[in-house]
Amino acid sequence: MDLSAISPTLLVASLMVAATPILLAALGELIVEKSGVLNLGVEGMMITGAICGFAIAVESGSPVLGFAAAAVGGAVLSLIFGLLTQILLSNQVATGLALTLFGLGLSSMLGQGYVGLRPPSVEKLNFGPLGDIPFIGPVLFNHDWMVYVTLLLCVGSWVVLKFTRVGLILRAVGENHDAAHALGYKVVKVRLLAIMFGGACAGLGGAYLSLIRVPQWTEGMTAGAGWIALAIVVFASWRPLRVLLGAYLFGGVTVLQLNLQAAGLAIPVEYLSMSPYLITIAVLVIMSAPRKGGKSRASLAAPACLGRAFHASN
Amino acid sequence: MITLEKRPQPSKLWTAITPVLAVIATMIAGGLMFALLGKDPFIAIRTIFWDPLFNEQFAAFSRPQLLVKAAPLILIATGLAMGFRAGVWNIGAEGQYIMGAISGAAVGLAFHPTESVFIFPLMVAAGALGGFLWAMIPGILKVRFHTNEILVSLLLVYVAEFILASMALGALRNPEGNGFPGSRNFKEYPSAFNAELLPNTGLHWGVVAAIVAVIFAYILFSKHMMGFHIRLAGQAPKAARFGGVEPARLILFCLGTSGALAGLAGLFEVSGPAGQISIDFNVGYGFTAIIVAFLGRLNPIGILLAGLLMALTYIGGELASFMLGVPSAAIQAFQGMLLFFLLAVDVLTNYRIRFGKREVV
């Protein structure tokens, strides 16, 4: 084994790429959960976005169109979830699972003709002299544009949630839908919009996997990324900037274990590959464990109406 | 203006009708999907739902398959339904299924080539234990640390898949297999083989176990205190707590039972129809069983029927992909659609639809 083969610069740079799909999906889910809806269909929306983006990018030759298609695909799929849970008042857990099962089937059906193709490549942005700064250059200024869009989206969600009226309404709906309804806010409308935003983000995350990170299409290629995104929202205590931290931590673990595999560590590949999932579970345990006061971090931070159906009875 | 009015109690009539409605709606939507794929929708639907049972050419082969495919679905779904009723969401049955299969197969392979009548029962016990222990991880984490069992049980599926890969390539690999991945084939080891009990019926020990599980679950829900506690905790968690139901015990019971049943399903599959531990011997029964549980209205008898129907879509789907060139993934989308429609029409069970003018709110 040769640990010196692992370069810290490359490690940090590839960590940002590895974290981007999960960061996108987790940001979307964060907004959905802030509005009081638990959508367990992230995995299904991600993989649908992955194939929609891949197919359109291959057909049109334009990755930008691909990403746009992925966002639309994810949003349309999430709208099914939205209609079922918000209008027909179905159980959110069951409907989310249905979305994942359906999305996995739908994507492998759509992807029949796309196995083994290569998508159009996405150029890295050129920041001129900034890219030549040692360490910081390759780490921060040598990525494709989606990495920066994702970072902007992350900061944007934080600003919107914390400083704007829209964010306030969204949080009000998530914390107490009856009060928000009494104040005249359209609870169902707000939630539907949040769900579609979440779907679009998950779709973008999936497309990032199939267009940039991998880049090709294989069935079931998200491999649990959607579920990890859900866990990261809990880890982040429903705060956008902590989602960033969580996604980078997770990206770091993924990249590190890949590097250790390449360096020939004496642990079998399968056990290294399962480490991101195990670490996610460990993090969930730490965040959920009750503290001295009796309540856990997660239960204090969760939106109060998370997962509860809203039905204006009068 | 159409409004929804909550029923004081879910309608019994609609509870029974909605699954049928959902199946019909899925057939229509599925037909549209097949038409979009360029297939004749009527022939496609007939190939999936009718031909496996009644076509003279294929029925002889596919009828026994019905029991083979339904058994694991029913076994797993019966266990899941207990948890779902209590609000305990074990969605990692696929992982428990894999771990049950690995532990059971490992016990069987350890005795190779000894022949004894005790080997198979021992494997069954090991299979149940494997699934039980794997489900105890989310169980204990939930009871002790309040960790979300949905995420933990699901993430453990991926861990189980990596363990399966490592077993098929390493510890359980057939030493006489010329280096190919995969364990010894149980078909060549009579003491450990889960053979057909009656020729050409598909009836193996897994089917027997599934029927026993359904009967036990039925008695549990209708006669036993634990079944009452499960229903109470699901419908009125606060009342359950005041009534002396211990949530921790309930969570562990539900997760443990469903894990053990999923483990059993895995063991019966690996020692019978699948025949060996290989990297991809699991085909997602653990996930499809979630649909079966809901389609069967979380009711053991309903699950029995739903399991048979879902097994039919598996066989019919294979037939349709063989005969009509329908992509095999289409059937997975079809099954997902079924759950959507079921959840959608369920609104009729819990709500009354009122037509008329709504007052100003």
Automatic annotation (TrEMBL), chain A:
This is Nucleoside ABC transporter membrane protein. GO terms for molecular function: transmembrane transporter activity. Keywords: Cell membrane, Membrane, Transmembrane, Transmembrane helix. CDD domains: TM_PBP1_transp_TpRbsC_like. GO terms for cellular component: plasma membrane. It holds the Pfam family BPD_transp_2. It is found in: Cell membrane. It is a multi-pass membrane protein. The chain crosses the membrane at residues 6-25, 37-58, 64-84, 96-115, 145-161, 192-214, 220-238, 245-265, 271-289.
UniProtKB/TrEMBL annotation, chain B:
The keyword Acetylation does not apply. InterPro entries: ABC_transp_permease (IPR001851). The keyword NAD does not apply. It is found in: Cell membrane. It is a multi-pass membrane protein. Keywords: Cell membrane, Membrane, Transmembrane, Transmembrane helix. The chain crosses the membrane at residues 12-37, 66-84, 118-138, 150-172, 203-221, 250-268, 274-296, 303-323, 329-348. One of its GO terms (molecular function) is transmembrane transporter activity. It holds the Pfam family BPD_transp_2. GO terms for cellular component: plasma membrane. This is Nucleoside ABC transporter membrane protein. It comes from Litoreibacter albidus.
